[in-house]
């Protein structure tokens, strides 16, 4: 991770969350907590009844007291108990009202066989539930299972019915920063009426599985792993979570006809769990924008963003089959060979896409007016009408007005009729250019300006949608797989090894806590120093916050925007900058990791990190390197004993491409932990000269972004001797006279004062 900015004061405190884990023994509740707490920068407390009594089993009252105390301290809390029925959960849910916080439930509703197998095999369990007795306990508890509902008082429920679902939930909560929130609703439930997992009876060979005919509804096994068609909108169930891509779910067959490029109905389109944005044509109706020009821009922006949105989908909606804009866009999209699995057109009412068209869209766009008010007819009036007063209230909390070319994301309250009946979780208001002289801000047919504004409007809209996808997706699939593998390994260890692992986890949590708290401190420090307001978070999107590179799927937290703000608006930060030019700005790292630590910050839009760099950016890299050399030499004039290295982090935590110019003494109070050290002294740190060679030859840089690099043992960067902790390493560095490794002495990787003649 990038360590160039870390705050010195406590970050602005966000709203705490109470997360109630629901699941049988062996479902992975404790592992879930450990994995989230290990990766999250939000302060979490795990309340476990198995250990609440000074490491031994305690009472429910002790858990309630401990949770209340943590919430009072503004810490988010996991309730790690089975919580399988409503009565067991109710007193914990009430804590939400007392402390004015959101209460979530994460339901680990995994197959009974898996829970039993884990429980029987494990050793050294905190509650001593293991071996043969565990099977009977799991069986008994699952027969009394009562799944939580939103009506109990939860703002969000996440159902995990497979190990891949668990990965997604770990990713979602693990990526939450101190100031981040999650959308409200019920996510991932595929079988809301399921109570007992029938397969457990066969597994224990006690009772045969009930026959389908024996059930009053004749529906058979309630826990089929291939549920087929489901009603996504059970009264307590919102659309299945867009975090996961579950091919076993099918969309509800629609009645209205959607026009796909091959002429098929939209109801045949597989709209499983993929996040989907439905949007109207912007500015072509009341604002009278030219259809041909508008269609060109729609197709251009759709082509640009579909390549960056993963499995997410875009749907252009209009009310009539005779729609000119739909016909034009269809034809142009076909010519551009845009993936019909990522983009389609649909005829229907944008406020009734699920109920009348069978189209599940969790996000819809509104062609808004500048006041962000209801009325005016058309799409704007229809959406405000359908969403009820909840949308107007939620919009006021986000923005008071909107300028042409911009968009604002508004999470839709769970009480909104549009949420309840259609499963819409977010509305994105967007304002395009006006060519109608009867409306405000008419451009009088200035299409050069108008086209630019419309391009910005669609880019802002799609980036707003991307921010929702990023928030819900969290970590990458590969990282999720690694997390689950580690969790499974932990459960399968022997008692001795398990205890060792737990010790290691405690040590790593302690190390990560240092890094996490420091990273959290950045938020306050950066916002105070650089003027980054909460309005710059991903859910408030304008044309300045777009990404055009490969880092589109990276979830940049609110605190990570500070460098981007400085690069885009250097005039607001003149007192903090050493140099401002057309291409770069230069600043001292706010919390340097060495005596001298300077950042050369690119001002190019859309190049957020090394992953975004392509061959066309070679001159930018060369400019940054030249400026870095200039500053290294300037600092050497002040202190000739220093040695500098110029390079990039493979996977930075701060948005906007930046080059580190750092002295090799690493003598700084801000060099605090293993991740700090290894981010500058392993392959994770890419030398600027090597990056330029790779981009010149191959069109891209090689990224060494394996997390294992950041957790390697501490070794001196000169003699390569190993050390147990940072204080011991720093003490050694202060006296180490060994030469630098040979590879650093080659190709100008190190910059030092010229030798005296």
TrEMBL record:
<dbReference type="GO" id="GO:0005634">
    <property type="term" value="C:nucleus"/>
</dbReference>
<dbReference type="GO" id="GO:1990165">
    <property type="term" value="F:single-strand break-containing DNA binding"/>
</dbReference>
<dbReference type="Pfam" id="PF16278">
    <property type="entry name" value="zf-C2HE"/>
</dbReference>
<dbReference type="InterPro" id="IPR032566">
    <property type="entry name" value="Znf-C2HE"/>
</dbReference>
<feature type="compositionally biased region" description="Basic and acidic residues">
    <location>
        <begin position="507"/>
        <end position="520"/>
    </location>
</feature>
<dbReference type="InterPro" id="IPR019808">
    <property type="entry name" value="Histidine_triad_CS"/>
</dbReference>
<dbReference type="GO" id="GO:0003697">
    <property type="term" value="F:single-stranded DNA binding"/>
</dbReference>
<feature type="compositionally biased region" description="Basic and acidic residues">
    <location>
        <begin position="535"/>
        <end position="547"/>
    </location>
</feature>
<dbReference type="GO" id="GO:0003725">
    <property type="term" value="F:double-stranded RNA binding"/>
</dbReference>
<feature type="domain" description="Macro">
    <location>
        <begin position="330"/>
        <end position="506"/>
    </location>
</feature>
<dbReference type="GO" id="GO:0030983">
    <property type="term" value="F:mismatched DNA binding"/>
</dbReference>
<dbReference type="Pfam" id="PF01661">
    <property type="entry name" value="Macro"/>
</dbReference>
<dbReference type="Pfam" id="PF11969">
    <property type="entry name" value="DcpS_C"/>
</dbReference>
<dbReference type="GO" id="GO:0033699">
    <property type="term" value="F:DNA 5'-adenosine monophosphate hydrolase activity"/>
</dbReference>
<dbReference type="GO" id="GO:0000012">
    <property type="term" value="P:single strand break repair"/>
</dbReference>
<dbReference type="InterPro" id="IPR036265">
    <property type="entry name" value="HIT-like_sf"/>
</dbReference>
<dbReference type="InterPro" id="IPR027417">
    <property type="entry name" value="P-loop_NTPase"/>
</dbReference>
<dbReference type="InterPro" id="IPR002589">
    <property type="entry name" value="Macro_dom"/>
</dbReference>
<dbReference type="Pfam" id="PF13671">
    <property type="entry name" value="AAA_33"/>
</dbReference>
<feature type="region of interest" description="Disordered">
    <location>
        <begin position="210"/>
        <end position="232"/>
    </location>
</feature>
<feature type="region of interest" description="Disordered">
    <location>
        <begin position="498"/>
        <end position="553"/>
    </location>
</feature>
<protein>
    <recommendedName>
        <fullName>Macro domain-containing protein</fullName>
    </recommendedName>
</protein>
<dbReference type="InterPro" id="IPR043472">
    <property type="entry name" value="Macro_dom-like"/>
</dbReference>
């Amino acid at each position: 991770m990038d360590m160039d900015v870390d705050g010195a004061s406590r970050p602005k405190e966000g709203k705490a969350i109470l997360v109630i884990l629901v699941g049988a023994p062996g479902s992975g509740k404790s592992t879930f907590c450990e994995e989230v707490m290990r990766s999250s920068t939000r302060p979490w407390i795990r309340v476990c009844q198995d250990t609440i009594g000074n490491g031994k089993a305690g009472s429910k009252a002790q858990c309630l007291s401990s949770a209340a105390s943590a919430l009072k301290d503004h810490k988010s809390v996991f309730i790690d108990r089975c919580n399988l029925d409503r009565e067991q959960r109710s007193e914990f849910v009430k804590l939400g009202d007392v402390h004015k916080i959101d209460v979530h439930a994460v339901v680990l509703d995994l197959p009974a066989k898996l829970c039993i197998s884990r429980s029987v095999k494990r050793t050294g369990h905190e509650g001593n539930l293991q071996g043969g007795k565990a099977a009977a306990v799991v069986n008994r508890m699952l027969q009394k299972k009562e799944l939580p509902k939103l009506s109990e008082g939860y703002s969000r429920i996440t159902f995990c019915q497979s190990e891949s679902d668990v990965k997604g939930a770990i990713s979602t909560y693990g990526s939450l920063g101190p100031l981040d929130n999650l959308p409200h609703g019920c996510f991932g439930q595929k079988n809301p009426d399921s109570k007992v997992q029938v397969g457990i009876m066969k597994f224990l060979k006690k009772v045969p599985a009930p026959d389908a005919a024996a059930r009053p509804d004749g529906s058979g096994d309630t826990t089929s792993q291939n549920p087929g068609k489901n009603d996504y909108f059970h009264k307590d169930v919102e659309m299945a979570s867009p975090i996961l891509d579950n091919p076993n779910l099918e969309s509800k067959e629609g009645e209205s006809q959607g026009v796909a490029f091959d002429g098929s109905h939209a109801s045949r389109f597989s709209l499983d769990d993929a996040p989907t944005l439905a949007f109207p044509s912007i500015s072509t109706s009341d604002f009278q924008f030219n259809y041909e020009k508008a269609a060109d821009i729609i197709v251009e922006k759709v082509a640009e963003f579909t390549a960056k949105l993963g499995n997410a989908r875009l749907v252009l909606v209009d009310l009539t089959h005779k729609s000119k804009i739909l016909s034009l866009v269809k034809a142009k999209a076909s010519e551009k060979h845009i993936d019909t699995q990522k983009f389609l057109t649909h005829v229907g009412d944008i406020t009734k896409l699920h109920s009348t068209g069978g189209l599940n869209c969790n996000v819809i766009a509104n062609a808004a007016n500048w006041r962000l008010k209801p009325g005016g007819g058309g799409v704007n009036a229809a959406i405000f009408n359908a969403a009820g007063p909840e949308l107007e209230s939620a919009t006021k909390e986000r923005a008071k007005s909107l300028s042409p070319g911009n968009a604002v994301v508004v999470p839709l309250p769970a009480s909104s009729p549009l949420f309840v009946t259609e499963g819409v979780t977010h509305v994105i208001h967007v304002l395009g250019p006006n060519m109608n002289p009867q409306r405000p801000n008419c451009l009088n047919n200035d299409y050069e300006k108008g086209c630019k504004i419309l391009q910005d409007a669609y880019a802002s809209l799609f980036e707003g949608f991307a921010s929702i996808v990023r928030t819900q997706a969290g970590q990458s699939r590969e990282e999720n797989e690694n997390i689950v593998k580690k969790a499974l390994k932990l459960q399968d260890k022997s008692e001795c090894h398990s205890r060792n692992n737990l010790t290691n986890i405690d040590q790593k949590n302690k190390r990560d806590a240092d890094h996490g708290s420091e990273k959290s401190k950045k938020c306050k420090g950066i916002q105070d120093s650089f003027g980054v307001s909460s309005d710059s978070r991903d859910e408030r999107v304008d044309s300045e916050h777009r990404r055009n590179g490969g880092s589109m799927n990276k979830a940049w937290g609110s605190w990570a925007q500070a460098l981007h703000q400085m690069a885009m608006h250097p005039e607001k930060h003149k007192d903090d900058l050493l140099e401002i030019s057309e291409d770069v700005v230069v600043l001292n790292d706010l919390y340097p990791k060495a005596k001298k630590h300077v950042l050369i910050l690119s001002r190019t839009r859309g190049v957020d990190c090394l992953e975004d760099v392509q061959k066309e950016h070679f001159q930018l890299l060369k400019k940054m390197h030249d400026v870095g050399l200039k500053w290294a030499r300037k600092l050497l004039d002040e202190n000739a004993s220093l040695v500098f290295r110029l390079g990039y982090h493979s996977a930075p935590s701060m948005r906007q491409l930046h080059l580190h110019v750092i002295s090799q003494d690493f003598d700084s109070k801000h060099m605090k932990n293993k991740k700090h050290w290894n981010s500058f002294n392993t392959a994770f740190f890419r030398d600027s000269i090597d990056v330029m060679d790779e981009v010149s030859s191959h069109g891209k840089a090689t990224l060494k972004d394996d997390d294992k690099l950041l957790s390697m043992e501490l070794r001196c960067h000169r003699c390569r001797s190993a050390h147990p902790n940072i204080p011991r390493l720093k003490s050694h560095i202060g006296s180490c006279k060994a030469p630098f490794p040979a590879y650093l002495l080659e190709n100008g990787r190190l910059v030092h004062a010229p030798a005296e003649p």
